[in-house]
Amino acid sequence: MKLLPLLCLSALLVGCGGEQTPPNQTAGALTDEQLRTAAQLRDEMLASNVAWEVVEDLTTEVGARMPGTPSDAKGVEWMEQRFRDLGFDKVTLEPVEYPLWERHHEMANVVAPFEQPLAITALGGSVGTNGVLVAPVVYFATIDDLQAAADEEVAGKIVFINKRMEKTIDGSGYGPVVAGRSGGAKVAGAKGAVAVLIRSVGTDSDRFAHTGMMRYDEDIPKIPAAALSNPDADQVERLLQRGALTVSIDISAGFTGTYTGHNVIAEVTGSRWPEEVIVIGGHLDSWDLGTGALDDGAGVAVTTAAAHRLLSEDARPGRTIRMVAFANEEQGLIGAYAYAAAHETEIAQHFLGSESDFGAGRVWRYDTNVSEALLPSFEQIFPILEPLGIERGGLESGGGPDIIPLQQLGIPVVRLSQDGTDYFDYHHTANDTLDKIDPEALNQNVAAWITLVYLASHIPAEGN
Ligand SMILES: [Zn+2]
């Protein structure tokens, strides 16, 4: 018997179940047959067209889906119809209310010493300039430097924050830079600045500015905030090295009321424990500049394709798979919090949550955050993922942005982490378009998702 684990590891892709347990490790509860089925589904999905069709149709027939815009409503209608066309067992809409922010126009120019236009985009949530604002520019390498500056250095000026984002596979360069985007206007406004310009939170050197959400404090003057494309930030840096710089900014944007959007939900009813759910999905909304292909049309497409395959009798999940196309992730996980609030009474029936929201790069790591009791079964999933080029990651994973509210309520989560090396070249820009998606990488995602979701749905939990 002691030889069996070794034999299993070397001879079988599907791993070992039953009594074939390595010493000092509890057996997972998935059967060999379930593992074999998952491997077949995995291989089959590498040649599927469903995900590509979803993201192509969504980005072509709807395009950008900024919260509260007419295309937000169009996107919801489109998604509901697509779920129905794909034959999901149950399709529902759940209302989500949010503040409506509108972008009308945005322009910036160097006034002196060398007149020229600058490529900018207003940050989400920003107020407008109320006409053309002209002021000298003051340089800060980071938001911390701005924080440390005396008020008189900043008052009456346009603050420029120059921190550049680093390119990494896991997007770890984003966090340290995004503070300048979300909080720059608060810090600058408190010191009397008239506007803030940041270097885009992005890793490209294209002339596309990256938008994204920013915040005000109610008791601090609200000043307009915009991002410069990376080459334009370089230009501003060089201009400042030559002496005093004056820039004009003309932004028309702002909050104009509230809007009711929707989470669009599709279910595959579980065959063994239908009352227990696994929440998967992506966010249906996007920013307005591109067509929201990578962020997050791809995530919606990948999870829809995986869930759709599980509708067939030969692939029925044990638990119910609840595919959520979340509303308004971009402006503060608003759909995700609405989902958690609407399902508060059935939180205990949520077995697992996981979202795809990091573009369309290949899945390269499998991260988990589940109970010790369930971990051996989740470990059984890994050998089926591994042939897709996936590594085993850590045990303290998040489940994706829209899963945060569920994780806060104690729901186990996993993440199929994607290669995000190029993600922030396009993130929140006009350049986030369908051509950035590699269909083969997209299908590798679907293959990983179906493996995870099918197997997780069959893991017996306590009491089952
Ligand atoms: Zn996203």
From TrEMBL:
Pfam families reported for this sequence: PA, Peptidase_M28
InterPro entries membership: CPQ, PA_domain, Peptidase_M28
Segments forming domain Peptidase M28: 263-451
Domain PA residue range list: 135-235
Domain of life (superkingdom): Bacteria
GO cellular component: extracellular region; lysosome
Keyword field contains Zinc-finger: no
Gene Ontology MF, one: carboxypeptidase activity
Gene Ontology biological process terms, A to Z: proteolysis
Subcellular location: Endoplasmic reticulum; Golgi apparatus; Lysosome; Secreted
Protein's UniProt keywords contain Magnesium: no
Gene3D superfamilies: 3.50.30.30, Zn peptidases (3.40.630.10)
Main subcellular location: endoplasmic reticulum
Keywords, sorted A to Z: Carboxypeptidase, Endoplasmic reticulum, Glycoprotein, Golgi apparatus, Hydrolase, Lysosome, Metal-binding, Metalloprotease, Protease, Secreted, Signal, Zinc, Zymogen
Subunit structure: Homodimer. The monomeric form is inactive while the homodimer is active.
Name used for this protein in its record: Carboxypeptidase Q
